[in-house]
Each structure stands twice: as structure tokens, then as C-alpha cells.
């Protein structure tokens, strides 16, 4: 265990989840740490790396097998060793999910909305389309009507096509509004996206990770393994929060929105630990050619720059 009580608390909290979310944590690790180093590692070194978080070898092997079966990972045998990397599909999924995590800021909003009317779809397909669009940031504005203030038109069209719902869905795009967020609009947003519930989850994230940030700042010398564990659990929890966050424009959010403070805390803590965490990764992980390759240049652009 670590000498840092807040870090031990986070590790214990992860271990007490039922069931333990090993597959999700492995995806976090690949996206955050392994992909920038070329994307491929020896399974044995991965097992050793995750052991301090309390994930045993059997659970890791089971999770890796499941992720391979689901198309996230692919294996290559070199002698008796297996090396795993993200598949092309897995990499695209990761890029889409993690782009939100590391982006320095959101683009400005011009007040326009994208609306999708689903009333012409049969009930089963309507439910599937609604769930997928909600994952992409749409909210239910009225029965069978979903809206998003910052939709990607290409993603929307592709989603409707993939779900065979393009011909029976009606898409509208509104013009820019002079008043971006009226009182009625803010009330609608609070209702359609369950903003209060998400805000509470961000508040809990802050309560979990602020003591860790303070504890690490007080250390005269940062421990490399502690920094790796802190970084991995930080991004794991923050990524899970962002999957529920529609990333609404600031104009539509409460003035005391906890998501802003959570993002600043995540950025500050990541900048504090990333370099020492890299030392631990370089020492612990192996590829078929030996040590990990250097990180890609894009890695240092995370959170607006890792100085």
C-alpha cells in the first residue's frame, strides 16, 4: 500500500466495487498510458503493473479475453509471450471517448440547436436511437423530440444510418438565438439532462480527489508508483463521469457548475503526476522489442499542455 492515505482510500474504493470493473480500468490504461507509447505491451508486464490496484492475474486474463472477444484488443504471440494492442476499431472508440477527457476547452457556442424528431420510428427502434443519441449528448426535450446545442452533424447522420433510422427520423437545425440561455431554456436543460444529478457526481469526484492532490503537493519527493496509481484512477473516474456529461455550453449551465472545478482539479493533478508516472510505466511495461517507445508528441498537448 502507499504512504498516502487518500490514495489508499481510492484503491480500496475501487477494490470494493461489485463486480470489480477490471475491463473498464484496462481500457483506461490503454487509452491514457499505453496508446501514446505505441499501443502494444506484454501481458505479463500488464499483470504486474495492475497488481497494486488489487486486480489479480486471473481477473486480468479474463478481462483481456473479454475485451479481445468484444473487438477492443488484438493479440500477437512472440514465442511463449502474448502482446496485446488496441484494434483499429478499439482505437477509434478510444479516440472518440478520450478526446473529451484531454481537450483544453470547449469551442464557443453560437446559440444554434440540432433537433431530432423520432415519432415516425417504431417503438423498439425509437428506444435504441434515443439511447444512442443520449450517449452522444442529446437530451429529451419533449416526447419523441431530442435536442443538442453542439451536435456533430456527420456523427448524427452516421448514427442514424447505422441504426437504419435515417429515413424515418426528421432532423432540424435552428438559427442562432439572440438570447442564448433564457430562464425557460435553463429550466428545460436542467430537466432534460438531469443537471443536478450530474453536478452531485462531479461534487463527489472533487471530494475524492482534492485530498489526493493536496497530499501529493505536500510530498518533498514524489513516488513514481504512487503517481502512476493516482493518474490511472484519476482518469478512470473522470472518463466515466464524462461519458454521462453532455458537454453543454457554459451559457446553459448553472453559474456554480461543479463540472468546471472538477475539470480544473483533474488537469492540475494530472500535470502534477504525469512525469513521474511515465517513469514507472517505462520501468514496468515491456514490448516485444524491449522497453516502451517514447510517447508521441500529441501526448504533451493534453489539458492544454503538460509543462
TrEMBL record:
The keyword Cell inner membrane does not apply. Residues 107-179 form the Transcriptional repressor PaaX-like central Cas2-like domain. Gene3D superfamilies: 1.20.58.1460, 3.30.70.2650, Winged helix-like DNA-binding domain superfamily/Winged helix DNA-binding domain (1.10.10.10). GO terms for biological process: DNA-templated transcription. GO terms for molecular function: DNA binding. InterPro entries: PaaX-like_central, PaaX-like_N, PaaX_C, PaaX_trns_reg, WH-like_DNA-bd_sf, WH_DNA-bd_sf. Residues 193-282 form the Transcriptional repressor PaaX-like C-terminal domain. This is DNA-binding transcriptional repressor PaaX(Phenylacetyl-CoA).
